[in-house]
Amino acid sequence: MRVVVSSPRIANNLIIRNSVAIDTNTPPPGIASHGAGIYCRLSYATITGNTITENEVLDDFDGSGGGIFLAYSMPVIEGNRITLNHAEQGAAIFSQTLSAPQILGNLIQSNTMYAALPFYQGSASGAITVQQAPDFRIEGNTLADNTAAVGAALNLSGCRAGRVQNNVITGNRAYDPTAFGGMAGGIYLMVLSDAVEPIYVVHNTIVGNVASNIFGEQGGGIAFALPAGSDRLVIANNLIVSNSSGLYQTPTPLPPDGRATLAYNNVFNLRSNYLNLAPGTGDFSVAPGWVDAANGDFRLAPDSSCIDRGSAAYTVRVDAVGTPRPLDGDNDGTAAPDVGAFEVVHPLADSDHDGMTDVWEIEVLLDPTRDDAALDPDADGAVNFDEWIAGTQPRDARSVLRLTIPRGVGDAVRLRWLSVEGRTYRVEYRDKLLDTSGWQMLEGERVGTGGELVAEDRLPSASGRFYRLSVSRSRL
Ligand SMILES: [Ca+2]
Ligand SMILES: [Ca+2]
Ligand SMILES: [Ca+2]
Ligand SMILES: [Ca+2]
Question: What is the full DSSP assignment across 375-434?
Answer without folding.
Answer: --TT-SS--HHHHHHHT--TT-TT-----B--SS--SSEEEEEE--TTEEEEEEEESSTT
